[in-house]
Amino acid sequence: MHINVATTEQQLTVHDGDVVIATYPVSTSKFGLGESEGSHQTPRGHHIITEKIGADATSGTIFKGRIPTGETWTPEVATEKDLILTRILWLSGEEPHNVNSHDRYIYFHGTNQEHLIGTPASIGCIRLTNADIISLFDQVEVGTPVTIF
């Protein structure tokens, strides 16, 4: 199993060997690509999933500091805040230029801004719809390689 994130296409593909088994639209950073601390950019290169958080959470569960708050977001709740919802797949960089990805809290996660999926709109993380993050979460394991390009 391997995940590719094509930032130009705003698309994530899950591969089993040479076979694409799933494709999801995503939203990467509105600040572009980069690895600098505080840049709010999506880091490039090779990563691995180091933690899976929220396995039994209800879709729309709001996380703060990777802990469920007990609140659930629904589309009827209007907010401009960039919420981390439903599931978290925490990434760690595997190369010298992106080794800080874990410390920068770079995740795959669900979002309350699903209407922006398919466009660069995050502040560094890779957002998916809440249904898609549940699907992805259920397909991958800790240690799954991820390439962001």
3D architecture notes:
- With 149 residues, this protein is mainly β.
- Helices cover 7% and strands 39% of the residues.
- The chain is built from one helix and ten strands, in the order βββββββββαβ.
- It has one helix spanning 130-139, and strands spanning 2-6, 11-16, 19-25, 45-53, 61-64, 67-72, 84-93, 107-110, 126-128, 145-148.
- Strands 1, 2, 3, 4, 5, 6, 7, 8, 9 and 10 form a ten-stranded mixed β-sheet that branches.
- A hairpin with a 2-residue loop joins strand 2 (11-16) and strand 3 (19-25).
- The longest helix is centred in the last third of the chain and has 10 residues, at 130-139.
- It starts with a strand and ends with a strand.
Key terms for this structure?
mainly beta; ten-stranded mixed beta sheet
Can you write the helix and strand succession as a string?
EEEEEEEEEHE
Strand tally, please?
Answer: 10
Mean pLDDT: 96
Structural class: mainly beta
Instruction: List the total number of helices.
Output: 1
Roughly how many Å is the radius of gyration? 14 Å
Hey, roughly how much beta strand do the residues contain? 35-45%
Q: Give the termini separation.
A: 17 Å
Fraction of helical residues: under 10%
Characterize the main sheet.
10 strands, mixed
Uncertain runs: none
Looking at the structure, what is the overall shape? globular
Q: Regarding quaternary structure, how should these chains be classified?
A: single chain
Task: Please outline what is shown here.
The protein has 149 residues and is mainly beta.
